[in-house]
Each structure stands twice: as structure tokens, then as C-alpha cells.
Amino acid sequence: MQLAMIGLGRMGGNMTERLIRDRHSVVVYDRSSDAVQKSGALGASPAKDLADLCAQLKAPRVIWIMVPSGAPVDDTIQALVPHLSAGDVLIDGGNSNFNDSVRRGAELAARNIEFIDAGTSGGVWGLENGYCLMVGGSKRAVTYCEPIFKTLAPPDGFAHVGPVGAGHYVKMVHNGIEYGLLQAYAEGYEVLHASKKFPELDLEQISSVWQHASVVRSWLNELAMRAFSKDASLSAIKGWVADSGEGRWTVAEAIDLDVPAPVITLSLLARFRSRQEDSFSAKVIAALRNEFGGHPVKSE
Fold first, then answer.
1. Residue 117 pLDDT more than 80?
2. Does the annotation mark 171 as catalytic?
3. What integer pLDDT is reported at residue 293 of this predicted model?
């Protein structure tokens, strides 16, 4: 079927290619002319701006937005609305806050425009493996767009999880879980790496054997194995970890619901710690231990 893709970064560009491979007709737009040309070379129809993009689509139009969360999504929707008609469908496949998705859905519904929030997981591997899609929206809109979702997702990798906002809500919790899993693997491998009794432990070997019948085998562990195969000590990587906001939102939601989520919460705080060149709180602890117990401190 025909659709448009706005945003041709690492995710949007690969999603466009996967759609073209399955013979969907895709109109594309990105602020980067190089990205537009790359997708055009694969068979997409380039648009010079958002007005041109909408003009190339037959009604009811389907437009997938893959831009950073927050203001960029609102700005894109605001720019599109004057060129849309009743029955058109906008899909936000980025990591938007579910509250924003609920608001956007209500605002667009007042114009009789459908809105779908598609939580999307798969990263750079999605082109070949497919994307896990957690979709929120009306049954009518989701059913109409189902051929798109089935192309992007692997078998059984797409689910209509509820009304508008539900898709990004489920994706938020998905990413919160991811935070905890990543932290557990990271701490375990650090213990192995720091071992003084067994300093020659081979992390690539260990991560590989764990992929065979172990209860901790997973795709994340497979990726750890790949990383260790390239650089066993990860010496070229700085231990600075960003966050997309989803972990923060998951923790805030858990607090609002009185749900204890200590693992996800601590994994988020560990990311904050990774961004400090030096920790003032650690200095305070060192100073207090020196004051009450005479424990030694290290100078800068």
C-alpha cells in the first residue's frame, strides 16, 4: 500500500527500505537531502517538503513519523495538518511519552484525523530481522494500516495493544525492563572482568557459552558476545550512558501507581552516575569515613 515516511535516520531509513522490499509505495521526506536521495535510489518517491509529500499521497493518506520525541513530533504534526483531510492516518513510531500521544490523538480526532502510536523496537537490526511493534489506536485505523505493520514486523511481532497512547505506554515499560536487563549484564561482566583470582577470564568465551542452554541466554547477551569479540576490554568505549527518557517515565509511572520498581529505578540512576567525571557524593562519603573512622582518602 501507499504511505509516507518522515524522518530517514537509522530507524526510518531502514524501515523505508524494508517497506520497499515488500513492494509498498513510499513517499519520503527528511531535512537531509542525502537521506532522501538514498531512499530515492532504493525506489522511494522523494518529497521536497511536507506539502509536496501530502500532495503525492492518495486519500486516505497514511503518514509515518520517525522524528525525535517532544517538540519535533508536535511541530511535524502542526505542519502536516493543513494538508490533511478527514480519515487520514498519522503514525508516530518514535519514543514519545504516552501522555503526549493521548493528547495528540485527541487533538487530531477533533479534526477527524486518525492517530496511531506505534512503539517500535528492533534498532539497527530491524531491517533484516523485523521490528517489534506495539500499536495503539482505533480498530479502524490499525486494521487499515495492518499491511504496513505486518511488513515491518516478523511473524507474531505486531500487536494492537489498546487505544491511542497504549502503544507508547507498553513501549515505555518495555524500555524500562531493558534498562534493568542491561544493568544486570553490565554488573555481571564487570565482576568477571575485575576478578583477581581468575584474571585471564575470556569474556567472549563466557558470553558465547552462556548462549547455549543457559537461563541467561538472550539477544542482549549475544550482542555482548559480539562486542567482546571486537574488543575484549572495551577499551575504546567511554563508560558514558545516555537515556532516551523512557526509563524516567517508567519510574515516574511506577511511583504514581505505588508499584515498587527498584531494579529499573537503580539502573536509571546508574546511567546518571556514568555521566559524572567525578562524583561529589562519593567525595562526601570518603570524607565522612575519614572523619569518623580515620579511613584513608585518595587525593586528586
1. yes
2. yes
3. 84
**What is the average pLDDT across 121-145?**
96
Given the residues 178, 204, 222, 253, the one annotated as active site: 178
Give all strands of the β-sheet with 132-136 in edge-to-edge order.
45-46, 25-29, 2-6, 62-65, 89-92, 114-121, 132-136, 158-162
H or E element in which residue 114 lies:
strand 114-121
Q: In the chain, which ranges are continuous DSSP H helix?
A: 10-21, 33-42, 50-55, 71-80, 98-109, 126-129, 139-144, 146-152, 166-194, 203-209, 219-230, 246-256, 262-274, 280-293
Q: What are phi and psi of 187, to 5 degrees?
A: -70, -40
CB 157 within 8 A of CB 180: no
- How buried is residue 276: exposed, middle or buried, by Cβ count under 10 Å (0-12/13-18/19+)? exposed
State how far the Cα of 160 lies from the Cα of 60, in Å rounded to an integer. Answer: 20
**Mean pLDDT score of the chain:** 95
Write the DSSP assignment of 134-172 as a string of letters. EEES-HHHHHHTHHHHHHHSPTT-EEEEESTTHHHHHHH
User: Could you report the per-residue pLDDT of 248-264, keeping only the tens digit for each?
Assistant: 999 999 999 999 999 99
In this prediction, residue 300 carries a pLDDT of 67
Kind and range of the H or E run holding 117: strand 114-121
Q: Catalytic annotation on 283?
A: no
**What are the Cα distances from residue 41, in Å, to 28, 45, 99?**
11, 9, 37
pLDDT tens per residue across span 64-115: 999 999 999 999 999 999 999 999 999 999 999 999 999 999 999 999 999 9
Residue 281 to residue 266: CA distance in whole angstroms: 16
Which pTM value belongs to this model? 0.93
